[in-house]
Amino acid sequence: MCRIAGVIDFKNSLGKKLEEVTISMRDSMVYGGPDDAGLFMSNNKKVAFGNRRLSIIDLSSNGHQPMSNKTKTIWITYNGEIYNFRELRKELQQEGCTFLSGSDTEVIVNGYEQWGIEKLISKLRGMFAFAIYDERDVINGHKLYLVRDRFGIKPLYYYHSDKYLIFASEVKAIAGCGLISQEENIDAMVKFLQLGSIPVPLTTIKNVYSIPASHYLELKNENITIKRYWNISQVFKSSTNNMKYGDVVELIKSTLDKVMQLHLISDAPLGVFLSGGLDSSALCAIASKYQQNPLVTLSLVFEENSFSEAKYSRLVAKKFNTNHNEITLTEKDFMDEIPSIISAMDQPTVDGVNTYFISKAAKDIGLKVVLSGIGADEVFLGYSHFRKAKMVNNILQLFYRTPGVLREVLVNGIAGLNRKFEKLQFITEPSNNNAYFLFRGLFTPKQIQQLTGISKKELRQYGSAIDLDGCSSMSGSLTEDFNILEFWHYLQDQILKDTDFMSMFHSVEVRVPFLDHMLVEQVISNALNMRLGRVNKLLLVDAVKEYLPNEIVSRPKMGFVFPFNKWFQNSSSLFKEQCLNNKFLNDNSVHKIWDDVKDGKLHWSRGWALFVLSELLNSGKKSLKV
Predict the structure, then answer these.
(1) For residues 54, 57, 58 and 63, what is the CA-based torsion angle, rounded to 10 degrees?
(2) Using an 8 Å Cβ cutoff, are 38 and 51 in contact?
(3) What is the pLDDT of residue 409?
C-alpha cells in the first residue's frame, strides 16, 4: 500500500525542477507511505514517478518503488493490493517470466509486459491505482496509463494541460505542486451540498479530476483518453434465475472462504474492525477459520449506551477467542481531534469520522492492515431504502401524473406542514435518479439556493450531483437503480474515498473483502428476489448463520453511528462561529441551520457539512477553540 505521484512534462520546460516537484508531491503524502520513498526519472527527462511505501507484502527492499521490468523499459508506481498475485505469478512463470521479489508490484509490471494493459487489468483481483510508463516503442512514442480498480477503493487524481499531465493519490498533492492554478470549483461545492460528498470525476480544484472506478487513462501524443474496462450495470443485466436458492447460498459460502484466504495474505500485522454487526461478525468468523493464532479485533464503544455495540462485539470476540481491543470514544476525544480530522480530509465529506478513530486505534495497537465490512450493504441489499423502493415508486407514479406547477405547490405545502417531508422537493421533477436523493440527498435545491445565494437557473446549470454517465444502463426497476447508484455514488464517492484518506492518514491499510469483484458478480448475477428476501441481507445471513450467535444474525441493522446529535448540540455555537463570514455561505442561513441542529430539529450532518466546507474555504485561517 502506497501513495503515488508523477509528472509528465510535455515541453521539457521544468528541467531539474521536475525532480523537485515530484519529490515535493510524493513527500506531502508521507503518512500514506512512511516505510520507504522512491523516485524514477525517464532518460528523456520528461517523466517522473514518485512513491511512498507502506510495506505490506515483501517487506524487504526488493519491493522498492517505482519498479521496472528487467530491461528498465517499463516503470510502475503502484498503490494497492493484488490478492491473486501468487496465482498470476505462477501463470507468468509458466510463460517464461522470472521474478526478483515476492511483491505484487512486480507481477503487475511483468503482467503488463506479457499481456498488455487490457488483459492485465481483467486478471487483477484486488484494489489498485497505478501508473505505468512504457518507453519501448521509440517510433510511435512512449505510452502512459493511469489505472483504477473496479469499485474505486484506491484513489487516483490527475490534471492535464498542453504542458503537463500530473497525477497523485491525493488532490492536495496536485494542488500544492506549484504547477497549476488552485481555482476553487464552485460546481463541486454545490454538488457537495446536494450529496454530502464530491461526485466523480469532480474535485474542489478546477481542472483536477478523479479517474472513475473501473476506468483507466491512456496518454498518447500528449492527448488523453478515459476508457472503461468493467461495468457494474452490465452485471445487473446478466441477472438470471438459473440456480436454486440453496445452491446459490453454498456458492457464496465457498467464495467467501476463498476471498477471505486471499485477503489474509500479509507480511504485516493484521486485524478486523469488529462492530458487532452482521458484516464485521461474518468477517471475523470466516477469518478465524484460517488464522493459526487468535485474530486481533478492535471496536469503538461510547459512554452513551444507546450508541454502543459493545455487547455484540464482545459476544463475537468471545466465541472466536479473538485478541479483542475496545476503544472508548468520548465527546472530548472528538472535539480534540477535529483539527486532525479536517487535515486528514483530502476532499470534503460528511462521513469518515468513524474511520478516522478506528484507524487511529489500529495504529496505536500496532496494526498495519485491517479488514472492514464495507460493501456488504451494497452487495447484499442491506440499506432500508431498498425495501422502501416500492412505496417510493408509487409516489413517483403519482407525481408523473400531476402537472408540474401543481406538483411543486403540493410538495412545498407538505414540506411546510412537516419538516421531515422536505426531501420530497427532490422529486418535483420525478425520476428514478432524483428519487435516490430522498435517501442520499443532503440539502434540497431550495436550501442550497438559500445557503449560497445562487438562483434556480444557476443551480440548474450546475446540474445534479448524480452523473448518470457513470451508471448509464439504468434498469427501470427502482430497487436495482438504487443499487447501481449506491455502487457508483455512495460507495465510490463517499464510503471508500473517506475510508482511504482517513486510514492512510494513520498509515493503516483497510481491506474490503465484500468488494471482491468475483463475489460481487456472483451475488448480483442472481435474481433480485434472492437478495431482497424475508430478512435483511438474506443471502449473507444464510451463508454465515451457522458460524454466528443467533443474537448477531437476528439483530436489526444499526449501522456504525456516533452520538453526534448530542455532541453537536452541545457545541453548536462553536461550530456555527466557524461557518460564518466566508465567501460562499449566507450567514443568515448558517445561523438557521445551526440553531435547528442545536434545537434537535435538524440532523447533525447538515451542520457538519457547513463546517467542513467552511474549513476548506478558510484554508485553516481559523481554528476551532474548545
Answers:
(1) -50
(2) yes
(3) 85
Spatial contact of 352 and 345, defined as CB atoms under 8 Å apart: yes
Closest CA to 263 of 274, 275, 252, 255: 255
Q: Which of 2, 177, 471, 579 is catalytic?
A: 2
Give residues with Cβ within 8 angstroms of 15, minimum separation 6. Answer: 45
CA end-to-end distance (rounded Å), the chain: 36
Is residue 610 within 8 Å of residue 587, measured between CB atoms?
Answer: no
Long-range contacts of 10-14 (CB under 8 A, 24+ apart): 10/46, 10/162, 10/163, 10/164, 10/165, 10/222, 11/163, 12/44, 12/45, 12/46, 13/163
Share of the chain residues as helix, strand and coil, in percent rounded to the nearest 5: 50, 15, 35
Distance, CA of 626 to CA of 611 (rounded, Å):
15
Residue 306 CA to residue 361 CA, distance in Å, equals: 22
Q: How many CA atoms lie within 13 A of 463 on its CB side?
A: 8
What is the pTM assigned to this prediction? 0.95
- 2 belongs to the catalytic site: yes
What percent of the chain has pLDDT above 90? 73
DSSP 365-381: TT-SEEE--TTHHHHHT
Q: How confident is the model at residue 470 (pLDDT cuts 50, 70, 90)?
A: low
Residue type, 513: P
Return d(Cα 223, Cα 613) in angstroms, integer.
Answer: 34
